[in-house]
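Hi there, hope your week has been kind to you so far. It would help a lot if you went through both lines with me. No rush at all, and the record is pasted right below:

***
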Amino acid sequence: MSETDRSVSGEAWFQDVALRRVFDLLNADGGEVRVVGGAIRNSLMGEPVGDVDLATTLKPDEVVARAKSAGIKPVLTGIDHGTVTLVIDGRGFEVTTLREDVETTGRHAEVAFGADWQIDAERRDFTINALYAGADGRVIDPVGGLADIETRTVRFIGDAEKRIAEDHLRILRFFRFFAWYGGGRPDAEGLKACVRAKDTLGKLSAERVWKELKALLNAPDPGRALLWMRQSGVLTFLLPETEKWGIDAIPGLIQVEADHGWAPDPMLRLMTMLPPDRVRMEKLAERLKLSKAETQRLYDWSMATPPQPATAGTALDRLMYRHGREATIDRLKIAVATVKGRAADVQEVAMAEMAKLSALLKRADKWTRPILPISGKDLLDAGMQPGEQVGQRLRIAEEKWVDSNFALERDRLMEIATRTN
């Protein structure tokens, strides 16, 4: 166990009163607790710190007992795996008992609780995730994570192939962490191990795969990671739809996001890599077990008519009414990214097209869906008999209304809808 001269004691998150309570609670009477993983990694890399996770030599039931005696709420988030969440002042701190692997199958691991910090570190995935800090804030580096932080290297702990065999999802985690924290080229041994084992991703649940993919796509700039995934065959294995469509528009999208202040959007980035084909999107949504909202967004995008730079504003309004505002905006954003990606080759033309598409985007952002001035009830009140004809006549009037750029008024629409010939 290597204690270093690096420290996180001066970090604001480390001085949090709630965190200090956890240290005081679990370091007493022979127990020991340390912050582990992401909070330390991000602090040392100058990245924002989110959740603060901790590891302890105490068994889960002892953590629960101590919390209750101190008036702290324990939540049994993963007690079978040694994890208890302590809720203090509305904040949650995940506390996990030190563990060692008993048996791993590539998808599931059987673990035993332990008290050895070195063993706990060696069972983790990457060196940059196996850093600890005790109550004094001094960083403890059991497996060489500090050196890899300095070079922004995502490296498996120990033998890469063995670590992947323990959990196949680590292939995706390798690329996800490279997207967020990696620099230069991926670690060669890790990349080779991922290539050799990529077929094992098929053994994982769709939910786990999509969760990792979405986290990767949410990185500030996943472009390099996606490039290496494509070159290694991992991307084609997971998303065969991208094979002939590719990731060429991703750099343009990342740049446009920065230019316009758009927040990272994993779904938009995914769509940028896919052919807008409804049937193929249905298969993809089923294969990855996308949520209902994600599936609907993918469907709507695939069916929407793509606006062109020459599309008039009124024509855009009609497209949004017929295909949905969000789907049309998705199409527009991808169109801007595509043009941005080729701006260096035909700069003058591309810049003109981008200006037109950006103007359409501004219009779409402000657009409110107009409401048809007549309803089925109006037709019934006018004497039309209930039945399918009501809906048919209403749709005919609606199409005329949309074609008029929503200008036809109620009386004219009623005349169209109730016409007998």
